[in-house]
Amino acid sequence: MIHTGQAELDGVANQGWLLGHFMPPGTPLHSTAVEVKWGVHPAGQRRAAWATAETRTALLVLISGRFHMEMRDRTVVLTRPGDYLVWGPGEDHSWHAPADAVVLTVRWPSLPGWRLPPPPTQEDA
Hints:
Elements: H1 7-10, E1 17-19, E2 35-41, E3 57-64, E4 67-71, E5 75-78, E6 84-87, E7 93-96, E8 101-108
Antiparallel strand pairs: 1-2, 2-8, 3-6, 3-8, 4-5, 4-7
Protein name: Signal peptidase I
InterPro entries: RmlC-like_jellyroll, RmlC_Cupin_sf
């Protein structure tokens, strides 16, 4: 099977997530091994809540902009395209985009039950 798409457009329906257990079974986008996200974050956006009791490993790569990954003991500032951070199970984290940013996130394995509610929209305000 082959699937082509455009990450920014295709990710809209799933908060940027393109691949994982939550995608339709029987498609190449469905995986219980890994999740992939194309994250487009406007300046000032923050994660809605801290991720705690994490059991997965994750890789975040800065594509463009500036991005802060907040860990309990420090904040990692990603400033150049290609800057990245890897963290493992048990690392509580959050994030903040001080400037418009695009990041690619890969998490493994892909597990049910780890989704935050979507961020509020202009209509919710």
